[in-house]
Write a structure and sequence with these properties.
243 residues; mainly alpha; Cytochrome Bc1 Complex, Chain D, domain 2; 2 domains; globular
Length: 243
């Protein structure tokens, strides 16, 4: 009787060890058969492309702008601004909260190198007078309001300038208008000196509408790349742009 009890006591731990070992082998085998997610930038930026398009081309939704081809420095600055709360849009704030500068640089570089086609320009929905006012501000500025031309910083082709001034072509009028409004109200900010806030506060509602409407009707140039760094002497100091 004592021998039987002893045998059972020995058998149970051995059986448990055998079951654990079998489970481990099964789990390892199963893990080897499971496909691994590709560790590529295309896979990593899927959280971005869900809204901004598969190549950062932007979407028909007015508030998901084009990222493709913009200077990497600009894109990095905006990701930082979202992370630090200088720019507020809850989905973006949440998405980048715990991402390092190095990761943000990788994302910015990825989208800066994308070259999807630009959308067809919007058809004018405002009066010719409004369009003419928008063209004037964009290309010549308004000295009476101390507003420099948009082209003085964003380039004659309006494709931006390296390393951190964005292009303005290929954006929806509502998006441009909303961003100018955010600059003006201070809900969108940048590192001081915040030149866009300074300019936006000098524009009237009519000016903002005119600028947005005219820009949205412009065709992207044949070679829509940002102008080389320091190829323009900008009229205002901007904290996000190296001087």
């Amino acid at each position: 009787m004592e021998l039987r009890v002893s045998s059972r006591r020995l058998f149970r731990p051995l059986l448990a060890l055998l079951l654990i070992g079998t489970t481990g082998v099964y789990s390892a085998a199963k893990a080897q058969t499971q496909p691994k997610a590709p560790d590529t930038m295309e896979a990593r930026v899927q959280g971005c492309t869900a809204c901004h398009g598969s190549h950062g081309q932007g979407t028909d939704n007015d508030y998901f702008p084009r990222l493709a081809g913009k200077p990497a420095g600009y894109l990095f600055n905006q990701l930082q601004n979202f992370r630090e709360g200088r720019r507020k849009y809850p989905p973006m704030n949440y998405l980048v909260t715990y991402l390092s500068d190095d990761y943000l640089h990788q994302i910015a570089t990825f989208f800066s190198q994308q070259r999807p086609p630009y959308p067809t320009p919007a058809k004018p929905t405002v009066s010719p007078t409004t369009l003419a006012r928008g063209q004037q501000i964009v290309l010549q500025g308004d000295a009476s309001k101390q507003v420099p031309a948009c082209a003085a910083c964003h380039g004659k082709a309006l494709t931006g300038m390296e390393p951190a001034i964005p292009g303005l072509v290929g954006l929806h009028a509502d998006y441009i208008s909303a961003q100018l409004g955010s600059w003006r109200s201070g809900t969108r900010r940048a590192i001081a000196p915040d030149c866009m806030h300074t300019i936006a506060t000098r524009l009237s509602d009519e000016d903002v509408n005119a600028v947005a409407a005219w820009l949205a009707t412009q065709q992207a140039p044949q070679n829509p790349v940002p102008a080389p760094a320091r190829s323009l002497k900008t009229p205002l100091a901007c904290g996000s742009e190296p001087q």
